[in-house]
Design a protein that fits this description.
alpha+beta, 9 helices, elongated
Length: about 475
């Protein structure tokens, strides 16, 4: 029984058909009958639809598009990953060459001096030879090696696509974090200015004997706190600027400009059916090809225990001068068949085969874990989206009420109707509501990005040679 031919299951057959793998091998999964629901939990049929290509265009942000384009062109880590795929391509060439004969040519010219009793003698020698060697692939070992290399290349290509998607998503996440940080900075600066104006009013009222010194101290404390908050937020903005500059392959100067207003996107994205997730996730397809490559490695390890047969043919000529080579004399030739069979190696080959089989079983379990985690990622993103939308609506109403209460409390304080403690409490509530609203807007955008990535959203067709070039402002 061939060690790489094992019992198929529902999940292996399903994935093989989905990712379009050409291998006839189906792996024995410890879990059988992996079924997917007809729709995601927390969604309904109207949410289903095709996943958008160039999903980040929905944000309608030219600066973000420029950042993504620059990152795909200049990010050092991503370019290193591209070289990894090219290495896999060269390995395919190497493995394919082993299936063909190898021809080598050797030419030598030598001059030799020898000393004898009668004197010295100088002799010249010229040799030329051609050698043709070919390993007969009796058991399909070399074919398995080529198949493993092709599967590794397919895995590398899908892995690169997944890394590309992650890079785009990371740029988008960091960009909206920066915009959010700028919006919070503008809010903190506004509050610091408002507190400064309040301090001027309260100090004027104190001089007229209309309020107490405690109110002045409390307001002065608020002014200092808000100014300190502004300085800290400015530092956070600069950190995010440097982070983005690194992503696009530039020196982290911390000068990248960004707006101070987050976009609010109310329309939900379409959700593909759960059964389509395995075709859309590049990382899952990459792991599947890795799994099949491990299956090929097991077959190779098994077949290394069988004899190998090599044919070698050689021909050549020799003369005392290089110019006399190939002068019409009959060439010497030889034909050799060589059989090599492992007999005793202290169990090394058997252990290598067992190791390959254990590696295969290990990757099976990790693949299944990855598949279920992918489903969980989508389910969590959908559930989080619903919760964030509800929280946003509540805080939007809370913000309007808190701002109205803040203005009313200060007016009543100036009329002597309430204490300054009421003013401080109303200001705190208004500030918290405004801050929460900005953070929730950013979380909604982050959730949208996470959902696209979890669904395996496509991203590459945007950047063709005819695409409009955007500029990043510093």
């Amino acid at each position: 029984m061939m060690r790489n031919r094992v019992k198929p299951t529902v999940i292996s057959l399903l994935v093989a058909s989905l990712v379009g793998c050409t291998s006839n091998n189906a792996l024995d999964m410890s879990l059988v009958n992996v079924e997917t629901p007809k729709q995601w939990q927390g969604s309904n049929a109207k949410d289903n639809g095709p996943i958008l290509n160039d999903w980040f265009l929905a944000f309608n942000d030219n600066t973000l598009n420029a950042l993504i384009q620059n990152a795909l062109s200049n990010n050092y880590d991503f370019k290193a990953n591209q070289f990894a795929m090219q290495l896999a391509q060269q390995q395919v060439v190497i493995s394919g060459a082993s299936l063909l004969p190898e021809l080598s040519l050797n030419a030598t010219q030598s001059r030799k001096k020898s000393v004898t009793e009668t004197g010295t003698k100088i002799s010249n020698s010229a040799d030329i030879s051609a050698k043709l060697s070919y390993e007969v692939d009796l058991w399909g070992k070399l074919s398995d090696e080529q198949r493993r290399a092709n599967l590794a290349l397919a895995s590398a290509k899908h892995k690169l696509k997944h890394q590309e998607l992650n890079l785009v998503a990371t740029v988008a996440r960091t960009w909206f974090d920066l915009v959010s940080a700028n919006q919070l900075l503008a809010l903190y600066q506004q509050r610091a200015n408002n507190q400064t104006r309040n301090l001027d009013i309260i100090q004027s009222s104190y001089r007229l004997g209309l309020n107490q010194a405690l109110d002045v101290y409390l307001t002065q404390n608020n002014v200092n706190s808000e100014k300190a908050r502004v300085i800290d937020q400015q530092h956070q903005v600069q950190k995010l600027q440097r982070q983005l500059e690194l992503l696009i392959g530039e020196y982290p100067k911390g000068v990248l400009s960004a707006p101070n207003r987050l976009p609010l996107i109310t329309k939900d994205i379409a959700l593909s059916e759960p059964s389509q997730l395995l075709t859309q996730r590049f990382d899952i397809a990459s792991s599947w090809y890795d799994l099949l490559a491990s299956d090929a490695s097991l077959a190779i390890a098994h077949k290394k225990r069988f004899p190998s047969f090599t044919l070698t043919a050689s021909t050549g000529d020799s003369a005392d001068k290089l110019s006399n080579l190939l002068d019409g004399n009959a060439l010497a030739w030889s034909l050799l068949g060589n059989i090599t069979a492992p007999i005793f190696n202290s169990g090394r080959l058997e252990a290598a085969e067992n190791q390959a089989e254990l590696t295969l079983r290990q990757k099976e379990q990790r693949y299944l874990e990855q598949v279920y985690q992918a489903f969980a990622d989508v389910e969590n993103a959908i559930g989080n989206r619903q919760a964030l939308k509800q929280r946003y609506q509540h805080f939007l109403q809370a913000k309007e009420n808190a701002e109205a209460a803040e203005k009313l409390a200060f007016d009543q304080y100036m009329k002597g109707l309430v204490s300054y403690t009421s003013v401080l409490e109303s200001q705190r509530r208004a500030f918290d509501a405004q801050t929460q609203l900005i953070q929730l807007t950013n979380q909604l955008l982050q959730n949208r990005i996470n959902l696209y990535v979890s669904l395996g959203g496509s991203n590459t067709p945007l950047f063709s040679t005819n695409q409009t070039q955007y500029e990043v402002k510093s």
